[in-house]
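Posting this for the archive.
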Amino acid sequence: MNSIQSENKQYRGIQSWAESERPRERILLKGGQHLTDAELVALLLRNGTTGKDAISFSRELLKQFGGLRGLFSASHQELIRVKGLGPAKISIFLAVREISIRRLREELLSKIYVRDPKAVLDFFYSALRDQKREIFKVLFLNKGNRIIGEKTLFEGTVDETAVHPREVVKAALEIQATSLILVHNHPSGRIQPSSEDIEITRTLAEACGLVGVKILDHIVIGDNQYFSFSEHSML
């Protein structure tokens, strides 16, 4: 196909394309693995913007946000600044991200931590790695190290989180957990624990120990990497 034909096809819109070239028909016939990132995003958008079909618009979005990860981790405020993205399209991107996190959360619950630590990391990478604020989460486990719950307990500024031992102990007792895994993110992407991270881990371990609850690990999530207090013999 020459450049003139390609431009004409884009101008007429995807519906004018041969069925074998349309993303919707191809995903039904061959599966999503045969579609490009832009084609998958175009299926969510359903239509493009003035002078651009959905695939061309999707390519621009992926380039602007640095790929799928950047696009689907973008905040509402970042998305509304994009010309051509209205409330309907933005809500779809936000919903896809939330669905992805909830799916991972469902897979996480009821797993035995010592047998499948990767499920824990997959979930927290997805939920925390692109956050602009520090978020402190707690994973609750029973006597068999089976994961029985997960909860966000604190949210802080970009560089600090106010963690209250009383609230952690209260949450553990309410769900009848016998052990905990602490997880928080560093928006900077660095995973080395700060002196405050080390101190709060010690404080929480002491507070939880008083009621018979053990801290199994404290995991710091960065940019596609993590730091485990347990792996570094810091618990």
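Strands lie at 135-141, 147-155, 179-185, 214-221, 226-228. The chain has two domains: 3-100, 110-228.
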